[in-house]
Design brief:
Layout lengths: L13 H14 L14 H8 L3 H13 L3 E2 L7 E2 L28
Antiparallel strand pairs: 1-2
């Protein structure tokens, strides 16, 4: 027989997941409809985004390191309110000094 009309399921890549979650944070998605900044549980995000656990964990670690999200053991990830983030920190990019607190241009 010929090729199957069904394509094999592929895992979404790191950059794609980072872009989706960054856009959600930037747009205020996690503060709409009484969400109070709470993100979906990890298994729900995995299923929705079509990515593996390790990929999602790496993306969440990047967002945490940027000061965009935080978590406590046994709790969901929570988006840090923009007013609580350090000036110059962004989700989609980095600050002019590359995100280092001791880099050029830091005060």
């Amino acid at each position: 027989m010929g090729e199957s009309s069904r394509e094999p399921k592929r895992e979404v890549k790191f950059d794609e997941v980072l872009a989706v979650l960054s856009e959600r944070v930037d747009s205020g998605y996690y503060f709409e409809a009484g969400r109070e900044g709470r993100m979906e549980a990890v298994p729900a995000l995995q299923a929705e985004l079509g990515c593996g656990r390790s990929t999602l964990r790496m993306v969440l670690a990047v967002l945490r390191d940027r000061g965009v999200i935080q978590s406590h053991q046994g709790a969901r990830w929570v988006v840090v309110a923009r007013s609580a983030r350090r000036a110059g920190d962004g989700v989609s990019g980095t600050s002019p000094d590359g995100g280092r607190p001791d880099g050029p241009g830091s005060t």
